[in-house]
Amino acid sequence: MSFKIIVDSCCDLTPAMLREACFTSVPLTIRVGGDVFVDDSTFDQSGLLWRMKESATAPSTACPSPAQYVDAMDCGADDIYVVTLSALLSGSHNCAAQARMMFLEDHPEKRVHIFNSCSASAGEVLIALKIRELAMSGMDFNAVVSGVSRYINEQETLFVLEDLDNLRKNGRLSALQAIVTGTLKIKLLMGATPEGEIFKRGQALSVKQAMGKMLSIMAQDEHHKGRILCIAHCNCLERAFHLKEQALKSCQFSDIIICETGGISTVYANDGGIVVAY
After folding, report:
1. Predicted confidence (pLDDT) per residue in 134-165, tens digit
2. Range of the domain at 103
3. Which residues touch 20 (CB under 8 Å, ≥6 apart)?
4. pLDDT tens string 61-81
5. Is there a domain that residue 36 lies in?
């Protein structure tokens, strides 16, 4: 059976991955002031970072329409898997679910499953790669769905941000956290709940210290052994490589991959941000 993996553009697949025939990315859009950025191959990260820094208001994002998802599903594949960013952070999942119903009305013989990643960025990347792994192994559709659903439930997502301004502007930080981090320049180590909400895992006085705490959490987590670590970075490749080197020394991941944040991940990670999942 042929298969297709559709992701929303918060899934930060590398350019090489996106060239694989099994992957299709459906773009979200970003508005900052009067400027609109489409999160596809035309995305200008430096331009977005500059506009966000200059803007007094939070950037807004718009998820793909159901029609965009339907177009992506109409690819001729028998089995279609869709990965969206956390349903608690975006309407992308709901739009994909609406598209599934619309598509199956005209193509009842197809099989379509929508995965709520309960994550974003690096987390979505690993989910997409897990789908590819299981589907290419010859598993049937239901077995792939079951295996990937278990994988999502076991996944961990962590992130450290150099600049919390967009989270503050978007109301993702409490008023007290925003005041404290802004006044004392505290760096927060954040994570995702099993349901896909953002929560605080720790804090430090510098990004280096916060990343050290991130590394300690990963090393102490027995579930990381033998898994893949994905590091997504926003305009800080050197920081990502340093984290990879430290993880190779203290952790037992089977592989470590580095990705660059696309538009939506850049909005939330901001300049210098690091997102990891395993």
Report:
1. 999 999 999 999 999 999 999 999 999 887 66
2. 3-28+63-154
3. 132
4. 999 999 999 999 999 999 999
5. no
